[in-house]
Amino acid sequence: MTIHSPKPDSKSDATASRASAVARRASGIHVILNESAGTAKAVGSLLEDWSRNGLVTFHRPDTAEAAVAMSRRAADAGADVVVAAGGDGTVNCVVQGLLAAKRSCPLGVLPLGTGNDFCRNAGIPLDPAAALDLIQIRVAKPVDVIRVSTESECFHYINMATAGNTGLYADLVTDDMKKFWGPMVYLRGAVDVLSNLKTYRVQLQFDDESPDTYDVLNLFFANGCVTGGGMTIAPDAQLDNGYIDVVVVLDCSPVDIAALATQYALSDYRSNPNILFRRVQSVAVRSSPPLAISADGDILTDQPTRFSVLPGMLQVIVGA
Ligand SMILES: Nc1ncnc2c1ncn2[C@@H]1O[C@H](COP(=O)(O)OP(=O)(O)OP(=O)(O)O)[C@@H](O)[C@H]1O
């Protein structure tokens, strides 16, 4: 008996292979590239190679809002990983997009920014090629997300928010300065801020405690411990412990500030009386004058705000 195999249908084969190519593109590694981030241009040819070799699919938004929308769409379309290629601002854009998506999808990060503080906290290699190797292994872990809510708006971040005198950074540290100073820009910004310190009268309510009022130079709401291009501000903060580490720098004299800076340089400032450390699940903040609150360099709000932790809310490809 002769068995006849069906005649190959070249048209339907072509359609099937096109469909599988589209499916491959919809899944896989989707990179949201912020071409204006610190070192994105410097690694341009490496990125072109990855794209040509089919290792990644690139999206090139030209605004932060477009980066949020493209991240959400890539996740909803079936991406295996959506990668923020840029600095901490880009990471936050992709986080907003992934949290708004209907389908859960892990975050990866290619560190192409100036400070890359989230990568430092998450053990992600600062060398982009090594970071891509890590992403390709695709082992994600749950990481906490911090929700910042005002009466009218809501934002999320995964590294650190600051408020007070460092909140002035975002105005002072321009993109041109970042290009000129590189990672040193954060130190340069600190010098400008230190010469012009403001005091804020701030009411803080930690968890369900009754509110207390403090005179404050600065506040940090930390998920990760490092900010400002590698400065350890909240030494005990962990990305996945279900808590926000709040660090309050109380108003004090220039001599006390100098003592604090020296202790900081010696990594010995936990016992300084002008610093208050609290580990909480939520904190409500009101201030006079209004505090500019920024997350990783981008100003979020100057309204009364509540920070709350969303434990393990996002899967993230982190390093060792
Ligand atoms: N696709 C985009 N196009 C233009 N701007 C973007 C895009 N995505 C994000 N941004 C904004 O660009 C600014 C700088 O980006 P980002 O923070 O990623 O780089 P960086 O400042 O060099 O690095 P870092 O914050 O780690 O120091 C941020 O304000 C961010 O919101």
TrEMBL record:
Q: Where is the DAGKc domain?
A: 24-152
Biological processes annotated in GO? phospholipid biosynthetic process
**Gene3D superfamilies given in the database record:** 2.60.200.40, Probable inorganic polyphosphate/atp-NAD kinase, domain 1 (3.40.50.10330)
| Key word Kinase present | yes
User: Could you name the domain of life of the organism this protein comes from?
Assistant: Bacteria
What does the UniProt keyword field contain? Answer: ATP-binding, Kinase, Nucleotide-binding, Transferase
A molecular function (GO) held by this record is:
ATP-dependent diacylglycerol kinase activity
EC number, UniProt record:
2.7.1.107
Q: Which SUPFAM superfamilies match?
A: NAD kinase/diacylglycerol kinase-like
InterPro entries linked to this entry: ATP-NAD_kinase_N, Diacylglycerol/lipid_kinase, Diacylglycerol_kinase_cat_dom, Lipid_Phosphate_FormReg, NAD/diacylglycerol_kinase_sf, YegS/DAGK_C
The EC category is transferase
- Report what the protein is called: Diacylglycerol kinase
Q: Which organism is it from?
A: Fuerstiella marisgermanici
* Recorded name of the encoding gene: dagK
